[in-house]
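tool_call: predict_structure(chain=1)
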Amino acid sequence: MLRNNLRDEFRRGEAGTAVYEGSSGIPMRENLSFVKETFDPNVPFGVTIEERFANGKVPLNDSFNLNLDQGHTLSCRYLINPSTSSEFMYKVQRQRKIWWMRYACDPGRFFISDPRQDADTRVQSVAIKSRLGGEELTLEQLELVPADAAALEEELGDFRIKVGRTSSKTIRPSVLRVRQCVEVATLQVVLDAFESGGDASVRIHRKLAPFKCGIVCLSDDPALMPELRDLAKHLCNVLRKANLPVLDCSERNGGRSLAKQLHHLDSIAVPYCLLLRDQCLQNGLFQLRSRDTTLSETIHISDLPQYLLKIVTS
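tool_result:
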């Protein structure tokens, strides 16, 4: 679930640039032709593709590799005007660094490597990296391929695109490739959360957390517990229909105290918890607790799922 959430956030692309989802089952030039015929985009625009690989070796840094029996690569190819390609690459590399900072417990661990340029192909490249446990970890690679580079022949073929809506002029675009290994990205998120925790709380960002919310029932009257559990099941259905993954703890508390149940949710990175008590059955009010602040606010059952959706996606 964490890996899927990372995929979804990567596919959103960068603000101000249209990004379309492609298929790994067809060549890139066919993906581009489909996007061109269907959406008629202007440059710059991007196409994202996810590819699987087997028995792969993924470089973590200059000294270590990660051997994977199976893995997934996410890539986005931005087609850009050659006259503004360098500026676009500079903008995207900063945006990608900010993207990683946005979802991290320790935003200061991320940096951009020194740029490199291959003397033969003229391909410019940089990497987004992080510092973890005294080592550097390569998270993403960015490569700017010139429009006239031989490396684009197979990828683009004779593909050309209009410069603007009102212009009939077409150009052969340059390509900026952004690539990350999903498994390495997942490893980064988990290690960042554990290394930055300092306590029993695993603070994976709410947008990436596998479960967005947990539900805990507390009752002073054992006779009311079945009704609270029924309410918990109802709320689970409401939230799941709104595409919010929920962990229902109402059936599995085993007589544990509230503190232990909250500790369990914090330790598995659940960012929010609904606390259902006896009075909830009379007035419809319950508490919504935040993992990161440990503070609770009182909301009404009618506020779900809209209120939780708002704070999770903000």
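agent: The longest strand covers residues 65-80. Proceeding to next step.
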